Amino acid sequence: MAKCAVCEKAAHFGIKVSHSHRRSNKMWKSNIKKVKVNDNGTPKKMYVCTSCLRSGAVERA
């Protein structure tokens, strides 16, 4: 499973509860993209979540 290289955000696990209160396992995946990033002037591919991309924590190549 991919993890954000900036904020280390990854998948979350929990229990889904239906209307009749039956419980089953659930996984929430974070929105992570493989992006070309400028790392000290050299382009490099990294896994970054979309919230880090929007906030400007990463500069795209």
TrEMBL record:
This is Large ribosomal subunit protein bL28. SUPFAM superfamilies: L28p-like (SSF143800). InterPro entries: Bacterial_rp_bL28, Ribosomal_bL28, Ribosomal_bL28/bL31-like_sf, Ribosomal_bL28_bact-type, Ribosomal_bL28_sf. Pfam families: Ribosomal_L28 (PF00830). Keywords: Ribonucleoprotein, Ribosomal protein. Belongs to the bacterial ribosomal protein bL28 family. It comes from Frisingicoccus caecimuris. One of its GO terms (cellular component) is ribosome. GO terms for molecular function: structural constituent of ribosome. It comes from the Bacteria. NCBIfam families: L28 (TIGR00009). GO terms for biological process: translation.
